[in-house]
Write a structure and sequence with these properties.
The chain is an alpha/beta fold and 263 residues long. It has 11 helices and 8 strands. Helix 2 packs across helix 4, helix 5 crosses helix 6 and helix 8 packs parallel to helix 9.
Length: 263
Amino acid sequence: MIKSIRGFRKAVDGRSPLTMVTCYDAWTARLIAGSPIDAVLVGDSVAMVMHGYDSTLHADVSMMARHTAAVRRGAPQSFIVADMPFPSHRLGSGPALEAVDALVKAGANAVKLEGAAGHLETVRHIVGSGIPVMGHLGLTPQAVHQLGGYRVQGREPEAATRLREEARALAEAGVFALVLECVPAPLAGVITAELPVPTIGIGSGPDCDGQILVLQDLLGAQTDFQPRFVRTYMDSKVAIKDALERYAADVGGRRFPSVEESF
Ligand code: KIV
């Protein structure tokens, strides 16, 4: 488990790749804290995964702070990155820092924000204020309407060049790591080689310095669309359905509760 942003350096220094997963609640945070996962992200995907919205645009600072606090209670020692929800990092440095303050007071060690153009000064201001910032480029879900859907980014030469430039600009602005989401693997490899800070890939191939997945995706818990880049490590949908069916059958058949389970 990583204790500070210094731990992220190990990936750039060519040692073992970093592992991150998303986490939104205390119960899961406790389980992750007892695993070999390096750090957790309280992603704004919480709006979709836990609250059932159709995009991350429904997350706000109070939702993110509430979930960050829950994760911190469950994992007091873990390195927690909290997402800045739209449009908290687009309102100028002052209001952005107020959002950062809420997330840090809730328990975040660092914040993550999407995109680069138009808020590099804000990134500098947050980093200069002493709070570590993680960047996020490629498929930036808060821009889903602008991007026209959840699709791979940087396929065309112009878009690839822009991504490389934005990645360098974010590194110069002081980010300690950069998430690359749904970027073609060769381009992610080039960006990774060019940057002095680690890249954390999601749907961006094996050459990033680390990987992140939405926990519910890797546990096979999502009921709808499963992106191609996700590897599921268990079928929790089936396991949970089976447990609920057996519980219902036991209650229905008066096999639960037993004498031993009663007072
Ligand atoms: O919100 C989120 O879960 C994320 C990850 C997909 C990187 O930003």
